[in-house]
Structure formats: structure tokens, C-alpha cells
Amino acid sequence: MKKKSDTIKWTETETQAWIGLVKAQQHLLDKVEEELKKAGFPQLSWYDILWELERSKDGSLRLNDIGKKVILDKHNVTRLVQRLESEGLVSRSQCPVDGRGIFACITDKGKKLRRKMWKVYERVVRMNFLCKYNKKELHEFRNFIERIQASGFSDSA
User: What is the biggest distance separating any 2 CA atoms in the chain, rounded to whole angstroms?
Assistant: First the structure.
């Protein structure tokens, strides 16, 4: 049985708001990727994993937990962590409690790379997003995002 909400059409404003949000997010991520590449850095997904590891309590997380926390591609975490490990940016170890889980731990080399990448990332976001809004508008924007997250779209971080 169809619910009434299934047949309600979007208004032009609703359509433009949704499309605008998706396109703006994609544009910003593409711009960060482009500038990281120009600077000779790896892809943004590497930064994403290194950031989550570095900001964790002891610099390590289970691979499953990394997948829940990262902003970008959640499906390739194991493969990305293997690549990061081969570059000496993380180390992996078995979970001492259950043996099935795998932990990734950021190395000093990983921390250094993440900090270098942050300079590019921060600059691009500041120039293409943050500088477009005043403090009050950014606060309102944050409130809008929190409302979306409160409806069940946020992670458990």
C-alpha cells in the first residue's frame, strides 16, 4: 500500500536544495583531490583513514571501526589500509581479544604525511567553502547539518 508521502512531488526549491547540496559536496571533494594530486600527495581517502587513526585514543582502530568513521569510501577500507601499510604509514596487528579483528595503527611516517596533506586540504576548504560565509552563517550551516544527522544519517563517532 502506498503511503501519502510516497506520492508527494518535490517542489522546485526542494529539488534545487538537494541537488545543490550533493553537487557542492562533490565539487569540494573533487577540488581537494585535484589539489592534493597537484602537490604530489596520495588521494583524499588516504588522508581520511590517517586522520581517523591519528585522532583515535591510541592511534589505532579496528578496521570495522575505521569503516564506520571515514567520510569517504567505506567499502575499500581493508584494501586502503593494506596500501597504507605497504607505504609504512600504518601497521596492522591482530586483535589480542578475539583474534579475528584487525587493528590498524598510524606510524610516525603516517602522521607526518597526514600533516603535510592537511596544509593542502585546509587551504582548499578555506578558499572554496569557509571564506564564503561569516561566523553566524557557518554556525547556522552547522545547525542544518546537525538536523540531518539527528535524523539517523550520522555515524556513531
Answer: 57
Query: Are 121 and 47 in contact, with CB atoms under 8 Å apart?
Result: yes
Residue 48 in grid coordinates: 581520511
Q: 27-147: which CATH number, 3.60.10.10, 3.30.160.100, 2.60.40.2230, 1.10.10.10?
A: 1.10.10.10
CA distances from residue 103 to 61, 73, 139 in whole angstroms, order as listed: 5, 18, 36
In whole angstroms, what is the distance from residue 73 CA to residue 90 CA?
18
Cell numbers of 77, please?
A: 577500507
Q: Whole-prediction pTM value?
A: 0.82
Per-residue pLDDT tens, the chain, 157 aa: give them.
566 666 789 999 999 999 999 999 999 999 999 999 999 999 999 999 999 999 998 999 988 889 888 877 667 888 999 999 999 999 998 876 666 778 999 999 999 999 999 999 999 999 999 999 999 999 999 999 999 888 876 554 4
- Each domain of the chain, given as residue ranges in start order, spans 27-147
Q: What share of the chain is helix, strand, coil (3-state, %, to 5)?
A: 65, 10, 25
